[in-house]
Amino acid sequence: MEGYSFDSFLMVRLILCLIVCPYVWGNLFKEVSSCPSSKEEWRHRSEKKQCKEPIPDFMCAAIENQQRRFGEICTVVGLTSKGKCVVLDADTYNLNFVRCYATSGCPPNAYISFDLYKYPVCYNYSRETTFSTSTTEAEQDKQITSRNPENTDRDGSVHAIAISTLTVFLCVLFVFLLLLKKKRSKPKKDLENNEADEPTFLLNADSKLEEALCKQKISILGGYMKFQLVKLSKVKNLRFYMVTHSESLKLHFKENFDRMMNSGTVDWTKFDLDTVYTLLSNFCGITRTDRGWGYKPKDKDISVGADIERIRVLVNEYLDNKTFKKEEADQILERWRWVKKEVDSRDIIDFDRETKINYKKLKPNNVVEHGTVVTRVIANILEKLQSKKIVTCCGTIGCGKTTALEYIARKYRDDGWTIKWNKEFIDESFFNNVIESNTDKIFICCDNLFGSFGCQVFSDEMFDNFHFFMHSINKGEN
């Protein structure tokens, strides 16, 4: 190498060896009789292998140039180009990517490496063969599952000898470089001057691989957010809010409105992240951050609402300029680690169909029934009557209390209830009429109840009767 000293050249070689060798010693692939042929079998083998960080991904592939032999390994998988197969390199003990020469069955598009089982022709790779299409599927299956025990023992011995030889060589080389370094203690200025032109030997991360891993992590965050929607929203409550806010939903989600209004719980996880965020922030009772929905939360805020906001920001930054803050994403994943088993990390979101997530305040509808505008207040009274025996409606004169009471009474009458209406002063006849009613489904409407108290003079006995009457109704709640 012209322009470089001998010891510098050897030092670079040593660094490269030290980078590669830990993977060789600590992560040798294990030879197996066959590789998975389906998604379920792949997942089962992956769980059995128990791969962990920093090499968390299970991989099984054919051993390069060795017919009918297969191996499995823990590694970091990435994106494989179309028309190429993933194989295991018997020399480096890691993944390699080779061109598929078969006339059919080769990967037609780029794919994540752990989807290799979809292309069984890649399990039969060898430079000496071109994947003749005359081979039947039955013969291919037989080739995939066959194995020669004698070859395994022989190759295991070869591997052990190679590793031992490499270890001795590196030790000798390291001692030699130390001695050479002491002898040449004076630095060379010409090396410093040419530092900018020195070739880089560190391997740059493949851009496609990095993008695939980025998509996988941000898809997991999106999956966590969808899981929160299903977990935090009771189906009936969410449907009620969606109906009472249908006009606002239709305004913001024209394309997905019909599908949204007719979806079951499972289908909600198929919505885009903008829709999921809108439903979470409006209908699921999540406490908003101090800055409110639609704003980046404070660093010290680690509530569920704050993390949902952080996911919104991460997704928008990725859609804007393809940047992704891995550190912040990892912190959220750590706080939500209990959700991990509920989300399939292989469900990759198609970000070409996603739009930026923006906060939308959904407004309730004003429904008109029988000439009455059903406001949110009336809807709240109906909702409370589902769990309460007594509901008090307060307000100034002319605010619509009587109109609300008449509408609610009509709804209960249509459902078969007996309505007892009192607009006058409360006296003994009021209590007697209620007590003498021979029905369990009785709905009592007291219009201007407290106004009646203000216009009358009551005896102690009347107060006692009224107190006992109200207590008897309330007692039925417990």
Taking Cα atoms only, what radius of gyration do you get, to the nearest Å?
Answer: 36 Å
The oligomeric state is single chain
Helix content: 40-55%
Query: What is the number of beta strands?
Result: 11
Measure the end-to-end span.
90 Å
SSE ordering? HEHEEEEEEHHHHHHHHHHHEEHHEHEHH
Beta-strand fraction estimate: 5-15%
How would you describe the shape? elongated
Low-confidence stretches: 18-26, 129-158, 189-205
> Tell me about the biggest sheet?
5 strands, mixed
Q: What is the domain tally?
A: 3
SS-derived structural category: alpha+beta
What integer is the average pLDDT?
73
Number of helices: 18
Major sheet: arrangement of strands: 1-3-2-5-6
Could you characterize what this model shows?
Residues 18-26, 129-158 and 189-205 have low confidence and may be disordered. The chain has 3 domains: 30-145, no CATH class; 207-342, no CATH class; 367-475, no CATH class. Helix 6 packs parallel to helix 13. It contains 18 helices and 11 strands. A 5-stranded mixed β-sheet has the order 1-3-2-5-6. The protein has a two-stranded antiparallel ribbon with strand order 4-7. The protein has helices at residues 6-26, 39-49, 137-145, 149-183, 189-193, 207-232, 235-244, 246-252, 257-261, 265-268, 273-283, 304-321, 326-335, 376-384, 401-414, 428-435, 449-455, 460-475, and strands at 30-32, 57-63, 70-75, 79-80, 84-89, 94-99, 111-112, 367-369, 372-374, 418-422, 442-446. The chain is an alpha+beta fold. Residues 373-476 form the Novel STAND NTPase domain.
